[in-house]
Amino acid sequence: MSPAVAAIALAHGLLGDVDGFRLWRARAERVAGGAGSRYLASFAAFVDARTALHAGKPDARLVDAACADFPPQDWYRTYARATAAELAVVAGLPDAAARLAAAEDAAVENAWAAACLSRATGRLHGDEAELDAAVRAWERLGARFERACTLLLIPARADEGRAELATLRPS
User: Fold this and answer.
1) What is the mean pLDDT of residues 23-50?
2) Is pLDDT of 35 > 60?
3) How far apart are CA 128 and CA 122, in angstroms?
4) What's the pLDDT tens digit per position in 140-165?
5) Is the per-residue pLDDT at 71 higher than 90?
6) How many domains does the chain fold into?
7) Can you spell out the DSSP letters for 80-133?
């Protein structure tokens, strides 16, 4: 149940609602029985890293938390690892390329993680073709929000990204 509650925090965070994010993040911890709960740890790390990434507030501590040694059977560890790699790139961490390479296994069976890592690679190398590949990967997933965020990184398509984000905002 706690990842579902944390997903509400993610939605608030991506909408820029800091108070709503904090409220639902705290609720997720209560439902899980604490932030270190094995039922919440990897998903919470993903939520925190993805929200920081969207808010443009890179934080090395969040990168480290999302790169924790989660159990292999943890469903959300690949989301956390991929997002941590992208956050490391945006933060300009000296080991960002190594973190990106270490996260490659996350993409093997997770199309979301693969698209995220493609975007992170494009960001790291300033590679517009890689960003275009990430856009196509998000399209295949029907991940309109992530697609729009990626379009913002491509100067010639940034207006398209802003328009898409505007259609996704609640009225």
Assistant:
1) 84
2) no
3) 6
4) 999 999 999 999 999 999 999 999 99
5) no
6) 1
7) HHHHHHHHHHHHT-TTHHHHHHHTGGGGSS-HHHHHHHHHHHHHHHT-HHHHHH
d(CA 13, CA 71): 26
Q: Side chain identity at 18, as an amino acid letter?
A: V
Q: Which pair of structure tokens corresponds to residue 50?
A: 């993805």
Q: What is the pLDDT of residue 38?
A: 67
Strands (E), 11-54: none
Read off the tokens for 128. 């517009």
* Domain carrying residue 118: 2-168
Give dist(CA 117, CA 114) in Å, integer: 5
Question: How far apart, in Å, do the first and last CA atoms of the chain sit?
Answer: 28
Q: How far out from the chain centre does Cα 83 lie?
A: 4
